[in-house]
Amino acid sequence: MEEAKLDGSTHACLGGVCAGGVARNMAEALWRMRGPGAARLLTAVGDDADGDYLQSVAEGMLLDGCRVAGGRTPSYAAVMDSSGECLLGLGDMALHQSISIDLVDKHMDVLSRAPLVVLDGNAPPATVQHVLALCQRMDKPGTTHHLGTVDC
């Protein structure tokens, strides 16, 4: 394979699309292993085709209020070399800023019943801190680790 030139030219490739995101993948795995309702996902997805796809992958897993009108569903694209090594990653994660404290509080009943809470690091720092404080008050299992400016 020739070395790709970053000069704006088009290069032949193989493409693929799949649902992803660490927290979403974990929620779907639990959903499939334990059955519908065993895992719920509080996130932000757009009201676009990608959001429709994510909502259909595990029907009912997304909590109410996760669809953002006019929003673009967060996405990630990776450019891999022929041996599978990632050469470049591009992410459009801006919609995660819509994961608000109000959205979390709207689903307090789900959070209080959850035996385990998994938190994606793409949420706004204030939301992350709020969820951690709630989990501590509700005596949820786990530990916190300092990652940059956010404890999670």
What report would you give on this structure?
This is Carbohydrate kinase PfkB domain-containing protein. Residues 19-140 form the Carbohydrate kinase PfkB domain. Keywords: Metal-binding. With 152 residues, this protein is an alpha+beta fold. The chain has a single domain, classed as Ribokinase (UDP-N-acetylmuramoyl-L-alanine:D-glutamate ligase, 3-Layer(aba) Sandwich), CATH 3.40.1190. The chain has 5 helices and 6 strands, in the order H-E-H-E-E-E-H-H-H-E-E. It has helices at residues 22-34, 49-57, 101-106, 108-113, 125-137, and strands at 45-46, 67-68, 75-80, 86-92, 146-147, 150-151. The strands form 3 sheets. Strands 1-2 form a two-stranded parallel sheet. A two-stranded antiparallel ribbon has the order 3-4. Helix 2 (49-57) links the parallel strand 1 and strand 2 (67-68). The longest helix has 13 residues, at 22-34. Mean pLDDT is 87; it is low at 146-152.
Structural class: alpha+beta
Strands of the widest sheet, in order across it, are: 1-2
Mean pLDDT: 87
- Per DSSP, the total helix count is 5
How many individual domains?
1
Order of helices and strands: HEHEEEHHHEE
The span between the termini is 42 Å
What is the level 1 CATH name? Alpha Beta
CATH homolog superfamily: Ribokinase
Look up the CATH topology.
UDP-N-acetylmuramoyl-L-alanine:D-glutamate ligase
Strand content: 5-15%
The CATH architecture category equals 3-Layer(aba) Sandwich
Contiguous uncertain segments of 5+ residues: 146-152
Helix content: 25-40%
Globally, the shape reads: elongated
Total beta-strand segments: 6
Q: How is the main sheet built?
A: 2 strands, parallel
**Taking Cα atoms only, what radius of gyration do you get, to the nearest Å?**
18 Å
InterPro entries: PfkB_dom (IPR011611), Ribokinase-like (IPR029056)
Domain Carbohydrate kinase PfkB: 19-140
Keywords: Metal-binding
Protein name: Carbohydrate kinase PfkB domain-containing protein
